[in-house]
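Q: Convert this sequence to structure tokens.
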Amino acid sequence: MFDEAAARWLKERAHKASLRNDATAIQFFRAHFTYIDEINRDRVDQLLESKGAATANRYVAFLRALLRLAEREWGWIDRAPHLRMRSEPKRRVRWITPQEAAALIAAIPVPHRNPMRFALATGLRMRNVLGLEWRQVDGERGLAWIHPDQAKARRAIPVPLNDDARAVLREQEGRDAMLVFAGQKRPDSRVWQKALTRAGIKDFRWHDLRHTWASWHAQSGTPMQALQEMGGWETAEMVRRYAHLGAEHLAEHAARISGRVTFLSQPSDSCGTIAAHQT
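A:
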């Protein structure tokens, strides 16, 4: 039965940070499947036809994992069907400059400013910023940490505190005995959009503060391996989207063919002449 498989999945995967997404997929599929052995590729493709590629792929990823367990560990089916994933357009990394970040912080109401500043200084996700406790901060060592059960990838994240992060923490001291940002919450969409308009920024989400932090690191030459560890990303592939922003190390290689081709100045009504140097 599909319901039995779903219940067992939720029990065995209770530690997953994305369990809520799994529950949404379960709710969708249980309306269409009674038994797991009736699931096949054509039927799944048909059911997800009206969904966007990203949503469809999340649902398929869940179903693939469920059926693999049913086959390989539970022994409920002989063979899991191959389910297709759709190709998704690669989204550009949305980040803002330090000047734009300063304008956005100035434009948003005061209660939201310090969480934003801390997010830009550490790259932490919103829930980790707002849920940070003082016992997770070691001021003497200049370090904070996110416990595995708080992290999306379910692995501990070390959070080195730079001067900007420390300045925010000093401002928060004494406000609450447990939470660093007690009583502060995510700005609602109206407040956020109003701040973006005031700052002259478009197409920017709170989560893009994390992309901004990573982009600034890439532009400053932070090694991708170090960035992956600080950001708590599970795979190197997730960090490579920022690599093109820090390509200064390629400059010496680009310079190796410098001077091979010379563009000679010509009158505007004539064709340019290209003289190629002989190697």
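Residues 114 and 168 are 6 Å apart (CA to CA).
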